[in-house]
């Protein structure tokens, strides 16, 4: 039978296959053209990106040699900024600064923080780092001797001696936490020397570092505070308010040591900067800010002792539970009408109000805490109102924490209730209206039973969120035992003091609590889903 060029079958014409040589040629030719058109540019692009990364790494290594990251105690902020500015004006090196309490920076270094050098507010912590082998041998030196001052931002207070403390004509006295900050320890020693430690202790407001103490007094939320003289002095003069420079024999010398960490051992920028700090120019800057000439042969300051006890932890837990319960009850009363209006209203204001209620979800806690601190301070509208009503100032009090927590946790309570009301639909409410039920009867007998899972979810979320607050609490409440020191702040203090045993215990409690909250929410959601299935929704 002769083979046809075409095979006809099932209404389809099939052409015979081309010889394998031509088929392979056209296939590879087609692949080559696609390679030239698409793949080759991509390959060149990948090579270019890789080369760019190599160049960036080389440039980064070169720039790393021209800069250094230096951790500095908060009290040395202003002098260090000026010293760095003078140093950079005279050299091609760049110095990046980070500030915090000496205890905080010390704990960060132990946990691998990438600092090249550490300027502490004491001698003890650099010595510990030296003993731990985290520093360059023989690099530690005393760069300054700090001076303590009792300062009031209000010039009419006339703080020129210790009589303001002795007379008791003040409400809040700010000082740095003695277990974390050397200046706080010096302030406590000064009060002990004057015999005023016990009488004044109920008025103490503890800042996490000397910088926060300055903030408390600057915003007039504390009547006076023990600050570093360098914070309030420029060119030998007090910048604002009035101050009493504490005699140096009232407390142990505040000898401040600096040390080069192992990461900065071969950094030319750091080595040049450390040499500049010892120069006459830098010493003159220190004198302008009230520091004394450092004496490297002086005896070291005694170590900061950890005075935290289990009693303090229990007090922090109880205060946290009391705060969370109070805030949750208040939030349920406030959030219910807001959620009802947002769920039922068709007003053009619904969008802006919803955004305003949701704002704390994305707003940094420190921003909210800062503006609440200003608003509730003596110069703020809320502070002026509370003073006129005879309530007094709210910052650094339990009720100040309550107000701040209500603002911060509001969306966590409003949204679950709003969603529950929306999911009800209009039918139950229309039926209640047909029966001429009053608004109160409708809420109690219709809305509340059907939206009950939403209310439970809102209460759990509001309670849990208040338990875990930190930033807002720290800004508004400071660190007052049994008044504003909640669990999150207590854990923070334990970590900075390297008291990891207490920190582990409290953290484990918080983890167990968080797990319980999530488990309860899952149970509620499952019950809600089963209820919908049973009624055929």
TrEMBL record:
Main localization (coarse): membrane
Alphabetical list of Pfam families matching this protein: BPD_transp_1 (PF00528), SBP_bac_11 (PF13531)
GO molecular function: molybdate ion binding; molybdate ion transmembrane transporter activity
Membrane topology according to the record: Multi-pass membrane protein
Keyword vocabulary terms for this entry: Cell inner membrane, Cell membrane, Membrane, Molybdenum, Transmembrane, Transmembrane helix, Transport
Residues annotated as domain ABC transmembrane type-1: 317-521
Membrane-crossing segments per the record: 43-63, 315-343, 355-376, 396-414, 455-480, 500-524
Matching Gene3D superfamilies: MetI-like, Periplasmic binding protein-like II
Record's subcellular location: Cell inner membrane; Cell membrane
GO cellular component, one term: plasma membrane
Functional description taken from the UniProt entry: Part of the binding-protein-dependent transport system for molybdenum; probably responsible for the translocation of the substrate across the membrane.
NCBIfam families named among the record's database cross-references: modA, modB_ABC
Similarity comment text for this entry: Belongs to the binding-protein-dependent transport system permease family. CysTW subfamily.
Name the record gives this protein: Molybdenum transport system permease protein ModB
């Amino acid at each position: 039978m002769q083979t046809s060029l075409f095979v006809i079958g099932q209404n389809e014409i099939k052409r015979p296959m081309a010889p394998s040589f031509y088929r392979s040629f056209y296939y590879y030719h087609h692949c080559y053209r696609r390679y030239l058109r698409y793949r080759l540019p991509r390959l060149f692009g990948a090579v270019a990106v890789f080369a760019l990364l190599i160049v960036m790494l080389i440039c980064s290594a070169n720039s790393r040699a021209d800069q250094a990251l230096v951790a500095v105690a908060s009290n040395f902020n202003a002098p260090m900024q000026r010293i760095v500015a003078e140093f950079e004006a005279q050299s091609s090196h760049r110095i990046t600064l980070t500030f915090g309490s000496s205890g905080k920076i010390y704990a960060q270094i132990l946990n691998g923080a990438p600092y090249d050098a550490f300027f502490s507010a004491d001698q003890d912590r650099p010595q510990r780092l030296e003993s731990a082998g985290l520093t360059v041998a023989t690099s530690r030196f005393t760069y300054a001797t700090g001076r303590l001052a009792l300062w009031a931002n209000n010039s009419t207070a006339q703080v020129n001696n210790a009589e303001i403390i002795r007379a008791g004509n003040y409400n809040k006295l700010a000082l740095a936490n003695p277990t974390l900050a050397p200046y706080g320890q010096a302030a406590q020693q000064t009060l002990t020397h004057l015999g005023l430690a016990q009488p004044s202790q109920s008025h103490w407001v503890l800042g996490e570092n000397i910088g926060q103490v300055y903030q408390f007094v600057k915003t007039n939320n504390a009547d006076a505070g023990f600050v570093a003289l360098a914070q309030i002095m420029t060119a030998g003069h007090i910048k604002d308010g009035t101050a009493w420079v504490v005699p140096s024999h009232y407390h142990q010398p505040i000898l401040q040591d600096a040390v080069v960490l192992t990461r900065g051992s071969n950094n030319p920028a750091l080595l040049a900067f450390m040499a500049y700090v010892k120069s006459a120019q830098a010493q003159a800057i220190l004198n302008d800010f009230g520091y004394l000439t450092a004496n490297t042969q002086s005896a070291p300051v005694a170590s900061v002792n950890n005075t935290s006890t289990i009693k303090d932890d229990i007090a922090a837990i109880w205060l946290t539970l009391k705060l969370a319960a109070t805030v949750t009850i208040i939030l349920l009363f406030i959030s219910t009408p807001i959620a009802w209006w947002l769920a039922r209203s068709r007003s053009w204001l619904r969008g802006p109000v919803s955004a305003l209620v949701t704002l704390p979800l994305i707003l940094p806690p420190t921003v909210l805490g800062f503006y609440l601190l200003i608003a509730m301070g003596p110069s703020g509208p809320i502070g002026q109102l509370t003073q006129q009503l005879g309530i007094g100032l709210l910052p650094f009090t339990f009720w100040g924490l309550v107000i701040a927590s209500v603002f911060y946790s509001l969306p966590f309570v409003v949204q679950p209730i709003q969603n529950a009301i929306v999911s009800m639909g209009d039918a139950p409410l229309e039926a209640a209206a047909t029966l001429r039920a009053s608004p109160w009867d409708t809420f109690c007998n219709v809305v509340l039973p059907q939206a009950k899972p939403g209310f439970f979810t809102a209460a759990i979320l509001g309670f849990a969120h208040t338990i875990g607050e930190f930033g807002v609490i720290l800004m508004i409440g400071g660190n007052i035992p049994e008044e504003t020191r909640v669990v999150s702040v207590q854990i923070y203090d334990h970590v900075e003091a390297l008291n990891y045993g207490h920190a582990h215990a409290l953290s484990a409690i918080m983890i167990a609590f968080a797990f319980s909250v999530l488990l309860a929410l899952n149970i509620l959601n499952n019950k809600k889903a089963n209820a919908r299935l049973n009624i055929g929704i």
